[in-house]
């Protein structure tokens, strides 16, 4: 798998911002086929930081339903995989640099 395909996008939420401020841990949405070694190499290449540890989790899909004028519609949101990446002491990843 190419390194450009491993990382899908960074996850920017209140929880991930608190983790990055508190424990230098960043969250990324990754490809489902990617493993921890590929994630580590991709983060180090793209952001130029030293990765200390990588934790991955598969977030299950959720059932969603809504009531519309046409009737009751139900479906599912897709599942995805995300990685929590902890960087070395004194290093940061600037996720807001290209906004």
Q: What would your notes on this structure say?
A:
- This protein is α+β, with helices and mostly antiparallel strands.
- 26% of the residues lie in helices and 39% in strands.
- It contains three helices and six strands, in the order αβαβαββββ.
- β4 and β5 form a beta hairpin.
- The model has no long low-confidence stretch (mean pLDDT 93).
Give the helix/strand layout.
Layout: H1 3-6, E1 7-10, H2 14-23, E2 25-30, H3 36-47, E3 51-59, E4 63-68, E5 71-76, E6 80-87
Q: H/E element string?
A: HEHEHEEEE
Secondary-structure-derived class: alpha+beta
The parts where pLDDT drops under 50 for at least 5 residues are: none
Order the strands across the largest sheet as they lie in space.
Answer: 1-2-6-3
Main beta sheet:
4 strands, antiparallel
Backbone shape: elongated
What would you give as the CATH superfamily?
A: RRM (RNA recognition motif) domain
User: What is the CATH level 1 assignment?
Assistant: Alpha Beta
Q: Give the helix proportion (percent range).
A: 25-40%
Amino- and carboxy-terminal Cα gap: 28 Å
Number of domains: 1
> Compute the gyration radius: what is it?
16 Å
Beta fraction: 35-45%
CATH topology name: Alpha-Beta Plaits
Supply the number of helical segments: 3
Report the strand count: 6
Gross CATH architecture: 2-Layer Sandwich
Mean of pLDDT = 93
